Amino acid sequence: MTNLIPIDNQQNNQNDLRSYSLEDLFVKFFNSIRISEETYRMYKYSLDCFFKWLKDKKINTPTEEHIIQYINSEEFNKNKSENSINFGKPVASATQAMYMAAVRRFFKWLNVKKVYPNITDGIEVLKERNEGGYVRKALQKHEVRLLLDTIDTTKIVGIRDYAIISLMAGTGIREIEVHRSNIEDIKISNSDIINNKGNVLFFIQRKRKKQKEGYVVLTNNALPHIQNYLSYRKAEPPDPLFITHGNKSKGKRMSIKSIQDMIYERMKQSGIKRPGICGHSIRHFFGNQLTEKGVPIKKIQLALGHSNQATTEIYTKDIDRLTNPVEEQIEF
After folding, report:
1. What is the distance between the alpha carbons of residues 62 and 68, in angstroms, rounded to a whole number?
2. Which end of the chain is more exposed for a tag (fewer CB within 10 A), N or C?
3. Termini Cα distance of the chain
4. Domains in the chain, ordered, with CATH?
5. What Å distances lie between residue 1 and 21, 28, 63, 71, CA to CA?
């Protein structure tokens, strides 16, 4: 791997003192920050890709200009994983931003430790925009219906995939939240004891959260299909909610990548090929449906689990989510 010149020696000696091993720096860096396992893998992959690019270019003392070159490079803008179905395809701007976040945080840490200057300061990865703001690639209602109708539900894999897509379309949860889910996360809430009317709640571990502190309400859009899958599978708590059924990895929790690949293949089979459409488009469908039906923005924010004020305005915990649950507004 490329080595870095310590910050104190850069002006005096540009060709020597490359004594800081990246392997050692990575270990110290990751030991100093608190991140989830998923974030660790993403950070490690992002940093490995960046420093491989530096090595290939024979760059030992990266500068701000090299960061800009990397952002504009093919390595940064196209999927290079030969095991991925998206190999060679453009990388989404949101994914690029995550990759750059890892590099930026690493160099910020190096600067604090007086090992190397923060050459990423002030550099941003711009997201695509249109006149109305960020580009939103959402599935349409008829596309969600088409996506579901083309799934063969005579086999357990089809039953599982139907349940996953119905769950995502009916609640707006992310692929990572599907990945983290367990059977025991589905609970009954006696919100109306007098009339014996309760909601079926699905507790989820939100993105960048360490605990399952959020929930969505399961309606007939998703609940019967999840129940059908679990019944067919003869599964019980505390098993993962969704597992693999292949010969090589049967019975294991579905990874984020396997969920993404499944959705990609299902979209391909159904003929949905519009630019910008991906698994996250199902989540945008959910948000768009609620917006079109006039659901208050604060309720949408709680349902989607947004913590950023710029995403869905101010986060409010005092809204009664169990009164006319927004999930009941979804139709497909």
Report:
1. 11
2. N
3. 51
4. 7-130 (no CATH), 141-329 (1.10.443.10)
5. 8, 16, 17, 20
